[in-house]
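For consistency, the fold was encoded as tokens, which produced the following:
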Amino acid sequence: MGNINKEFHLNIDGKKFEWPHQMISGKEIKQLGQIHEEDQIFLKINQGDDQLINNDDKVDLSKPGTEQFYSLKIHEHGSRIIVNGREKSWEEKTISYDQVVKLAYENYVKNSDVVYTVDYVDGPPKNPEGSMVKGDVVSVKNKMIFNVTATNRS
């Protein structure tokens, strides 16, 4: 009856953790180490290339020694979003209609004769695609694409 109430030890980015199961997934490693879901996790291999651990990959923690994992930041503090074909840096988790319009049209001035249409794709699961109107705020994901069109009212 081995492994009952056994804690398995691992290091993530130099911090020590205990895990109650022999196997751990890449997604669980990220959650345990508070690592952003878009970042990469690697298992340190002493003699050879370190192993990329994807979210669904399982790692056996029962081997001799303590597994050493480290993260590679893909998702920096913010995101890189694409607005009208141009990549922009965005540091917040959400973006408003006005903020998208200002990124698209740097000399944006509120004008009742101009209407802006904002559409987006490649968003996070809670808002994967859609349109925005004045007052809307959506969650942002790295590489999310926004298209903003200005139309004069006639």
